Amino acid sequence: MVGIRRVVGRPRRVRQASAFPLLPLLAAVLLTLAAVRLGSWSWHWLNMPHASNPVDEVLSGNPFKDMALVHPKAALPPEAGRQPWRVVLPAQPSNLQFGNPSAAVVATVLTDPACGACRAQVDEWLKKLPRGVRVVYKFWPAQAQRLTPGMLLELARRKGVTADYLQRLDRADGDLSDTEMLAMLEQAGVPLDAQRAALSDANNGLGKVLDADLALATSLKMPPPPVLTLNGYVIDGQVLSEDKIATYAERLANHQPLTQDSDYWLMDK
Predict the structure, then answer these.
(1) Closest CA to 237 of 195, 199, 212, 267
(2) What is the pLDDT of residue 73?
(3) pLDDT in tens, 190-235
(4) How far apart (Å, rounded) are the C-alpha atoms in residues 59 and 55?
(5) pTM here?
(6) Do 111 and 142 contact (CB within 8 A), yes or no?
């Protein structure tokens, strides 16, 4: 009997179908959604009312003619923030005063004679003032509670040696100590013994004459010395420039507006 031989062959490899292209399909779907969303936004944007854009208005015409429309400083009207700071600083009988008592313009100087930078700055200010301006000096300490410089200036006034004393102070360099100021007052004609007696005498009122000015300047929150005012208008270096001191004095004397638009043209550029 012939046997039947079972032939076992190698398994036949079945060819599988290629994978479905998922990534290209996903990319196509995303692009389609994006196009739909973009079209929706565009439709709403084109059909909704819009406020006028000052930048577009300026650029559509002359970009220099209406530059103020888009300049940051145009957020406020031209005069906003440009009002001079005015204070009331009445002259006291003890204040040193020079010039015509009935002058139309009064320059009030708040300063400390012991401060070297203050003396130099005040000297520059006085050189810029036109003739006919009355100058009033008030003591305003550079160091809080240091009143000796003001008291010595008051003593010089009482002894009639103010001019000589001020000249000696102006010729000195840098900040001055109390000892240096005492020595200069002695050179101006007031002996040291007389100075010590006056400073130690609580009844002579050297310190009390300073109280009114110090209290007023403190209540007004005046900046550190030196400070210059013209008829009460503070020359702050911002609204009122030191370079225009003579111009301001002339305007006040002629009863003209203290500030004009042309004063700020360079600041606006």
Answers:
(1) 267
(2) 35
(3) 999 999 999 999 888 999 999 999 999 999 999 999 999 999 999 9
(4) 6
(5) 0.69
(6) no
